[in-house]
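During the no-cost extension, the postdoctoral fellow (Dr. R.K.) reprocessed legacy sequence entries with the updated structure-token encoder. One reprocessed record is reproduced below for audit purposes.
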Amino acid sequence: MKKALVHDWFSVCAGAEKCVESFTNIWDDFEIFSLIDFLSDKDRDNVLKGKRAHTSFIQNLPMSKEKYRNYLPLFPFAIEQFDLSEFDLILSSSHAVAKGVLVHSNQLHISYVHTPIRYAWDLYHQYLKESELDRGLKGKLAKYFLHKIRIWDMSTINRVDCYIANSHYIARRIKKIYNKDSEVIYPPVDVGKFELKEKKEDFYMTASRMVPYKKIDLVVEAFSKTDKKLVVIGDGTDMNKIKSKASKNIEILGYQDDKTMIDMMQRATAFVFAAEEDFGIVPVEAQACGTPVICLSKGGTKETVIDMVTGIHFAEQNLSGLLNAINKFEKNIDIFEPANIRKNALKFSKERFETEIKNFIDKKY
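Re-encoded structure tokens follow.
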């Protein structure tokens, strides 16, 4: 069986790349394809087992390493230029265009969908507003190109034989947008590198890339209304906005290495997460440390955090909703058992993911 693995782009090692790492753990003989490949040597060894992906012409365009997203209108054309005709199995890892590769009737194409293209579908209006593209000439061009991407995306839905969703939340989106059923296989979380710590200290924690949809600004604003200590880890385009909302009880550490991140997670009273995520790996990592999670009851965290058992849910992504959840947590803090919280996280292990993916693909092939 000749196997091709198609991923949208390799720029950093984030959640989607952890799935690719598991795919190459299961099978080490994939030919790998991606729009771009700028992984570091360390990440390449882990994710691609030292291989270099076959890349598209986007790789060689000006500033493609830092500004590849500027070439979004070219992505559909670029992904269709890969000649995969010699392969028996195509496994695509898709949150943008990877599922749109061209295939023929004698091939099995299985797509692991992290999400349908967020900024073209249900986050379309939010994306335009946050990028200040909801008006003016640039806005009209952005709307036009996203309209074209939606049309192209719909044209590709039957190029996939079997859809796998990374959560029930994404399975519903796949059904709504593509009218396709999907199997749910939760992403891999390396829970083994997070040790249980029973004794917690008197501070809260949040960690994320500082981009608008992660809502770190909301978490900081909420804690500025309290006297509770909050530690913030992460960096990104929203850093200045977030700093402007921080009060004296909030410590913004910026980017930190894994060792520091894990240490903070283990010691924190609770981990706070206000984003509506497709799955959300970091809240599961916090639970693997025995740390309860205060999170939005929408998206992936609704499925990974058990309300009043491993954390507290809040319904509305706003200041009052988060403040009420913090107060509710404080009043019920004694009910959260670190060992039970870690037990829940173990359901999302890397080993479980790799077994489920292998069994699914073996069965379909």
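The chain has 15 helices and 13 strands. The chain has a mean pLDDT of 96. The remaining legacy entries will be reprocessed before the final report is submitted.
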